Amino acid sequence: MGDSAAEKPPVASLVAVIGGLTVAAVTAGYNAPLFSTRLDAMGYSDSLIGWNAAANAIAPFFMAPLAPAILARWGLPRVMIVAAFLEAVLFLACIEAPGFWGWSAIRLAMGAIGGVSWVAGEVWIAAAAPAAMRGRVLAVYNSCFAAGTAGGPLFLDWVGPAGALPFVAAAVLLVVSAIPVIWARRLAPAMTEAGPRPSIGMLATPLRRSPVPMALNLAFALVFMALWTFMPVYAADTGYDVGRAYRQLTAFAIGSIVLQLPIGWAIDRGSSRLTGLLLLVATLAAVATLDLFVRDPLLDLAYFFVLGGAASGLYVVALTIIGATFRGAGLSAAVTTFTLMWSVGALVGPPVVGAVNDLLGPAGLPVSLALFAAAFVPMVGRDWWRNRSGP
User: Fold this and answer.
1) Where are the alpha helices (DSSP H) in the chain?
2) What is the pLDDT of residue 329?
């Protein structure tokens, strides 16, 4: 791997990989609302919409044991380039296979390919970031990724969810995302160590060694995927404009952009664990008051802006701890497990919210979000208290 402790960051390398991931993030930003809107219009239940969203997260469970070996064998840039073109083909396949079963199968394949590519990109960034600037570098990455995500719902609002055009647009964006990676392929950190043998134990070791960042990523995934999947449905069920729900998601993503740099500064200057705890508590307070703000025309966008910053900051804190704790092949395994935690959240969150919605109606969304955040506060708080004198 590259020397993350180098005094100066490899700017060209980082700009290229972050740029490629940012473009790809646009498709991630409208992927879930596109499919949920289309399936809802076709008359599918909230539970089935949730399971369709979860299909994207099932495949990484099978691919995760293979990811470190794939990265070691093929290298970071080659994996990202090939994955971008394969995902573009899958988006075009959505045009020919509409409906729950066809789209669920395609999203399953997207999860397998995109998961490995995501691991490759984050290993690249974590390995290249200097230790003294890791929080800020990862904050810039998360801000740029959030910028792409913020453009997703707006782009969907402009393109429209109907017809073949949104799938074609996603394919074009994925091809474009490969261009900076192709340009910087010789600048990527070298995978100089052999990848670990594929095994479940290989993935469990980082979880045992550093469970808190895995829990923070899981909490963020649960909240993010539930909102991104069900805000359009919530809008339709409670009688306000679905287009406004798209704009609320955009405000969430803009908060993820603007508020990450102060969070990265706080991580580098203070305690990453305390920062993570405060952000988790802030996320819990925000989602617990969703019903108070979501239909307020004066405050709703500000509310989603703050919620986006707090929730997305959990990801920056978690990945910073991962980058500071692991090196070499261990970093590949740790980022793979870290990414798998996102997949767990994406797999569990939407079906749980869908089932709760079937029982409680629209109130199920804020109830579920509050439970998702509250579940991890004791663990993160205990970890901070035990390590309060450390970083």
Assistant:
1) 11-41, 46-63, 67-74, 76-96, 100-128, 134-159, 165-183, 200-209, 211-238, 242-258, 260-269, 272-288, 290-293, 300-325, 328-360, 364-374, 377-386
2) 66
CA distance 61 to 64: 5
**Whole-prediction pTM value?**
0.75
Q: Cα separation of 57 and 261, whole Å?
A: 29
Of the candidates 1, 275, 259, the residue with the CA atom closest to the CA atom of residue 150 = 259
Nearest Cα residue to 257 out of 126, 145, 168? 145
Q: What is the pLDDT of residue 4?
A: 40
Query: Does residue 18 carry a pLDDT above 80?
Result: yes
Q: Which amino acid is at 257?
A: I
Q: Tell me the pLDDT tens digit for each residue of 44-78.
A: 887 788 788 778 767 777 777 777 788 888 888 89
Could you tell me the CA-to-CA distances from 234 to 46, 226, 304 in Å, in that order? Answer: 10, 11, 15
Q: Number of structural domains, the chain?
A: 1
Is residue 1 assigned to a domain? no
* 345 part of a folded domain: yes
Rounded to whole angstroms, the Cα distance separating 307 from 290 reads 10
Q: What stretch of H or E contains 341?
A: helix 328-360
pLDDT digits (tens, 9 = 90+) for 120-169: 888 888 888 787 777 888 888 888 887 887 788 778 888 888 888 989 98
pLDDT above 80: residue 217: yes
Residue 338's domain spans which residues?
A: 11-386
Query: Kindly report the CA angle at 237 between 243 and 35, in degrees rounded to 5?
Result: 55
- Asked if residue 6 belongs to a domain, the reply is no
The alpha carbon of residue 307 and the mean position of all alpha carbons in its chain are separated, in whole angstroms, by: 15
